[in-house]
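Lab notebook page, bench 4
Experiment: in silico fold of construct C2
Operator: M.H.
Input chain length: 266 residues
Purpose: comparison with the prior construct
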Amino acid sequence: MSWLGKLVGGAFGFMLGGPLGAIFGASVGHQFDAGLEGMAGESFNPGDQQRVQMAFFTATFAVMGHVAKADGRVSNEEIGLAKRVMDNMELNPELREAAVQLFQQGKQVDFPLAEVLRQFRVECHRRTHLVRMFVEIQIQAAFADGVYDAKEEKLLLDICAQLGVSRFEYQIIKGQVQAQHRFQQSGEQFQAKSGLSKLEDAYAVLGIPPTAEDADVKKAYRRLMSQHHPDKLVAKGLPEEMMQMAKQKTQQIRKAYETIREARGF
């Protein structure tokens, strides 16, 4: 378990401060006071990486709840996605409950989205790979119920703008998330897909057109593998509990690349 997983809930919010710290403190309720008492006589001095872990965890689940509520209701599929993220992280009971409460806070009308995103961007210190993964998770939340409506699109564009992600980059990430969702399907539905459709999705996963040169295919593959490499992301501040998500992403990228390579014969 990472430093994040061992941290006392209340101390988490106290050390982070700002709107993210306040949101997390509220999510753990009475544990907040207990956490502050537990700090007596001890030196809690998180480094830069730990602060980023705190910010990423808090912002991810709170904003996910906000995105899920964007169309007016939170579907079972959106709740299921949040639970799958928690399952992948193998959170201890305390952190899982905190994640649930963060998701619930994000659904509230008075959720301070702008302030949360502003602090998250500052805490990330231009770690673009982390910001990109955060955006990917939020787009996945919007796609969870199978409907990507105008309100969700508007909200996600606003989130990207506040995080310094261009509209062009957003469209690329959105297309990759859609393709990854289709590409990772298994069973009869996946087997029934035509070879052409599967190949088209593979190109979309890598974010390149089918007309790309072999060298560009390889370049895109290496770039995406570097962006989603679990160890590199953790070193930049991704909570260790989220490593499984990064591993799944690299597996999808590798599978897409192998599909293209097989079709091209290189």
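Observations: The CA atoms of residues 183 and 258 lie 12 Å apart. Confidence is low (pLDDT under 50) at residues 30-46, 186-192.
Next step: discuss at group meeting.
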